[in-house]
Specification:
Length: about 140
């Protein structure tokens, strides 16, 4: 099954066909951020713990100002990136890219970000931005 980027705005969304326990999907997203140590640009943002990222995401879901794109592969979340409404430009920005440790540096990040850009363009987002250097580089590759 190929990688598929799916937007969610609730951790109760069930993207996994087979679950072993209630809340497993949310726990797996938390684990992505916990194990990753976060791909963040240290010059623009303070490092956040997985718990802090999950709280930011929950707040953005509740306020309707953000979503989380989850990269699903073989019925498991292997990567994620948050997509927030940018207060300054009213555009959207991507932050908090996380990739499962076994999938890092395997060329999945560019494919995933391309899928996110395509999904966002289908709902009318002209351009995505980011404060994170790695995400900026991935976006520049997509937009050319």
């Amino acid at each position: 099954m190929p990688l598929e980027a799916i937007a969610i705005n609730d951790f109760d969304t069930q993207l996994m066909r087979e679950v072993n326990y209630e809340g497993e999907f949310k726990a797996r997203i938390h684990a992505l951020y916990q194990d990753m140590g976060l791909n963040q640009d240290k010059h623009h943002r303070l490092s956040k713990t997985a718990d802090e990222v999950m709280a930011v995401l929950s707040d953005s879901f509740a306020s309707g100002r953000g979503s989380l794109y989850v990269g699903m592969f073989n019925d498991k979340p292997i990567c994620a990136v948050a997509c927030f409404v940018d207060k300054n430009s009213q555009g959207k920005c991507l932050e908090y890219l996380a990739m499962h440790a076994q999938n890092q540096n395997r060329g999945i990040e560019p494919q995933f970000i391309r899928q996110v850009v395509k999904a966002e363009s289908m709902i009318g987002t002209d351009q995505l931005t980011s404060q994170n250097t790695q995400i900026k580089t991935l976006l520049e590759a997509v937009y050319g």
